[in-house]
Design brief:
The complex is a heterodimer. Helix content of chain A is 0%, strand content 56%. By secondary structure, chain A is mainly β. Chain B starts with a strand and ends with a strand. Classes of the chains: A mainly beta, B mainly beta. At the A-B interface, strand 5, strand 9 and strand 10 of A face strand 5 and strand 10 of B.
């Protein structure tokens, strides 16, 4: 089956460092991957979308890469701040565009 | 432009009662998705609707759950004869179109507690 997997262990980093989160996919090649942020008790918020022919995409302190050989997307937050602490989800639409499928998410904690 | 509105934010039901969750998509959005999230777990797809049509309900339990998106008014997720295992956060998302490059806009969710 087509899967999208994220590291379930929480990532703890020091303020100012770069956080790197991983999203792996198996058994298919998505044309696009999306990244969302979810804070406790709130709905996910869209951050970035990257196409398979884009190796890298940036938005302020955020950077996403897409490696179709490794079947992996990396999500980076540079100069991390405590306010970046949240759960980050990667997602892609299934075939037929009927379902936006999410990974389990990785919780990031940025410590002052 | 108001975001996706879900209500109620919190809903408490006794076992056996019915729960009705409402979702008003963003203006101009005709595609609605419902998800369920258990504590410390990811978002599980339930159903995808367009106006007046259920397009994909492959994530919906076969019994007790139903969804609609009428021509007028909000989308409704209905759970009949609720059980404790239905306790979860239910999120609705909307989008203006379909396609793999389409982002989804989420509401703040309805937290259902079955007692």
């Amino acid at each position: 089956s087509q899967k999208i997997e994220q590291n379930s262990e929480a990532l703890n980093i020091q303020e100012g460092k770069t956080a790197t989160l991983t999203c792996n996919y198996t058994n298919y090649s998505p044309a696009y991957l999306q990244w969302y942020r979810q804070d406790p008790g709130r709905g996910p918020v869209f951050l970035l979308l990257i196409r398979e022919n884009e190796k890298e995409k940036r938005k302020e302190r955020l950077k996403v890469t897409f490696d179709t050989t490794l079947k992996q997307s990396l999500f980076h937050i540079t100069a991390s701040q405590p306010a970046d602490s949240a759960t980050y989800l990667c997602a892609r639409f299934s075939g037929g565009y009927n379902k936006l499928i999410f990974g389990a998410g990785t919780r990031l904690a940025v410590h002052p | 432009n108001a975001g996706v509105m879900q209500n109620p934010r919190h809903l408490v039901r006794r076992r056996g009662q019915e729960a009705r969750l409402r979702c008003s998509p963003m203006k101009g959005h005709s595609h609605v998705y419902w998800y369920r999230q258990l504590p410390e777990e990811g978002l599980k797809f339930m159903v995808y609707l367009q106006k007046e049509n259920i397009i994909d309900e492959s994530g919906m339990p076969k019994e007790r759950f139903s969804a609609e998106f009428p021509k007028e008014g909000p989308s409704i997720l209905r759970i009949q004869q609720v059980v404790r295992g239905d306790s979860a956060a239910y999120f609705c998302a909307s989008s203006p179109r379909t396609g793999t490059d389409t982002e989804a806009f989420f509401g703040q969710g309805t937290r259902l507690t079955v007692v």
